[in-house]
TrEMBL record:
Region Disordered, annotated ranges: 1-29
Residues where GTP binds: N439, K440, I441, D442, A500
Protein name: Uncharacterized protein
Any GO BP annotation: adenylate cyclase-modulating G protein-coupled receptor signaling pathway
GO cellular component assignments: cytoplasm; heterotrimeric G-protein complex
Keyword Nucleotide-binding: yes
Annotated InterPro entries: Gprotein_alpha_su, GproteinA_insert, P-loop_NTPase
MF annotations from Gene Ontology: G protein-coupled receptor binding; G-protein beta/gamma-subunit complex binding; GTP binding; GTPase activity; metal ion binding
Length: 529
């Protein structure tokens, strides 16, 4: 029948059908990974459907919530911005999570030490060579360092225990468990291209783990300090405390520094770096306090999209108003991660470098999600056919000299620029507030001051001065220009230079954004029938 023939031929050209077809020459490992991602996408979709149904019912009862989507490539700082929001507007919940973040800080510490131990192992396995003057070509691991390495080996077990607590592998074979299997392999057995970073799925209630361990009742008011059994000899904190002096000796060892230098491993610039405050984080009763920003600096990669509800209040001429906010952390979910602290491959940046396929797929999915949230409202409050919510887009500008782990030909800044172009040019997002955060300004400053030249990666930077002010203002103008040229209709360019781990400065920015969005929300509401 003609219709059948037509449909078949359309199907074979349908980009969605083509996109879903398995790639040619797919290996079994790739197939497993793809199926996992597809199942996860379906779970997300089902969860959104369920959420939409609930929201519809809820929204009939009260005012519309303000929705903000955090977007950006992996390690751009989305979760850190979310933590800042929680710290400001939901401090009680934030404090209750301190025990969980204590475990992440401990995990970050042992991970950094593990990286160093791996570097030493590699140096030990190399045959020593000598230069022209007869001295060794590369730093030599002496007996003292080898002994130190041996004494620190119990930390590997601590890391495994922490990872198992965070991502238990049960008989359920859930996504979280299966992803954990991908990442829970001991470092020594990991193939080079496998993710070395532990990641939790947003659906995994990892923060409850410590609560569950102590058997605290859900209804009991939860004090995070009570969640720790301070007398427990198997608590990772005990081992960390016992090995604190050895860890300090390792980090300050000249040979270790030389070996890290040779491999271009800048641990101090890597996420979750705590080796500069070992006294503090290895103290027997260590708990990340309100006074220090350890929770903001702690690194735990999250996969999937998570929703966080916060009640926010804003003052104005008409008195103070209070609204529910929903903040979505659109964590980038590529199964690979960046090797810690390295990534100085000199892949040049170009304003036209193709965006990685994985990133596009992910952002497409996120935009689809956010637009579905709007679709659900269109019949209720919205009269517009475009998304009215807000996006905070994070670009870690310090990544200008780094490449994507999953696509080593793509510069990380180029990836961000392309994602930015995709977002600002999307017609469905024409009415969306898009706020750009050029993040990791502190790391950018350190890099530029250490002599790394922006022009070596971004040709068009030409002969401009290699300082933070000039560089950030140049990048800001570039991002503004892309928005101007690509937005379906004119919109205001909102941009902030941020250091998300610096609570004070970030909270000023977020307070302004909160007031701005509340104001717009009220204006929109006034225009509604
Ligand atoms: N020095 C510095 N570190 C930052 C800044 N913003 C975030 N970080 C750190 O960078 C790491 C990654 O930040 P996250 O907030 O986890 O990044 P993300 O975008 O949520 O990453 P994914 O979970 O992989 O999607 C964390 O250890 C943060 O503490 C910043 O402005 N300066």
């Amino acid at each position: 029948m003609p219709t059948k023939v037509r449909r078949r031929s359309m199907d074979s050209e349908d980009p969605f059908t083509m996109a879903l077809e398995p790639p040619d020459g797919e290996t079994e490992e790739q197939r497993q990974c793809r199926l996992l991602l597809e199942k996860e996408a379906k779970d997300i979709s089902d969860a959104i459907d369920e959420q939409l149904t609930q929201e519809k019912a809820q929204e009939k009862k009260g005012p519309r919530p303000v929705k903000v989507l955090l977007l950006g490539q992996s390690e751009s700082g989305k979760s850190t911005i979310l933590k800042n929001f929680q710290l400001m507007y939901d401090p009680k919940a934030f404090r209750a999570e301190r025990a969980s973040w204590r475990a992440i800080v401990q995990l970050n510490v042992v991970r950094s030490i593990h990286v160093i131990l791996d570097v030493i192992t590699r140096a030990q396995s190399r045959r020593p060579t000598t230069g022209e003057n007869g001295s060794p070509d590369s730093p030599v691991v002496d007996d003292e360092l080898a002994t130190l390495k041996m004494r620190l080996s119990p930390l590997i077990r601590v890391e495994e225990v922490l990872m198992q607590r965070l991502i238990p592998i049960g008989p359920d074979k859930s996504d979280a468990a299966r992803l954990a299997q991908l990442t829970n392999i001991p470092y020594s057995e990991l193939p080079r291209n496998v993710n070395r970073e532990v990641a939790v799925h947003s659906a995994n209630p990892w923060k409850d783990v410590f609560k569950r361990l102590k058997g605290i009742d859900d209804n009991e008011s939860f004090d995070s300090e009570k969640a720790i059994d301070w007398e427990d000899p198997t608590d990772p904190g005990v081992v960390l405390h016992a090995l604190a002096e050895d860890m300090k000796a390792l980090w300050s060892n000249q040979t270790v520094q030389a070996l890290l230098d040779r491999q271009n491993l800048r641990l101090q610039e890597a996420a979750g770096f705590f080796l500069d405050c070992l006294d503090d984080v290895t103290s027997l009763k260590y708990m990340p306090s309100d006074g220090v920003d350890h929770i903001l600096r702690a690194r735990l990669k999250t996969l999937g999209v998570s929703e966080h509800r916060i009640k926010m209040t804003s003052g104005g001429l008409t008195g103070s108003i209070s609204r529910d906010w929903r903040i979505y952390d659109g964590a980038y979910e590529h199964p690979e991660a960046y090797p810690p602290g390295s990534l100085t491959t000199p892949v040049r940046f170009s304003w036209r470098t193709p965006v990685s396929g994985e990133s596009l797929l992910f952002f497409g999915r996120l935009i689809a999600c956010s637009c579905r949230f709007c679709t659900s409202e269109r019949h209720g409050h919205h009269t517009s056919t475009t998304c009215k919510h807000s996006i905070i887009f994070l670009c870690p500008i310090s990544a200008f000299d780094q490449v994507l782990a999953e696509e080593p030909r793509v510069n990380r800044l180029a990836d961000s620029v392309n994602l930015w172009t995709t977002i600002v040019s999307n017609k469905l997002l024409a009415s969306t507030n898009i706020i750009l955060f050029l993040n990791k300004i502190d790391v950018m400053r350190t890099k530029l001051e250490s002599g790394i030249k922006l022009v070596d990666y971004v040709n068009s930077y030409a002969k401009r001065s290699n300082d933070l002010e000039t560089a950030s203002s140049y990048l800001r103008k570039k991002f503004a220009g892309i928005q101007r040229e690509n937005s379906p209709s004119p919109r205001v360019f909102y941009c902030h230079l941020t250091t998300a781990t610096d609570r004070k400065s970030t909270q000023i920015v977020l307070a302004n954004i909160k007031d701005q969005l509340m104001h717009q929300y009220l204006n929109d509401a006034a225009l509604l029938p």
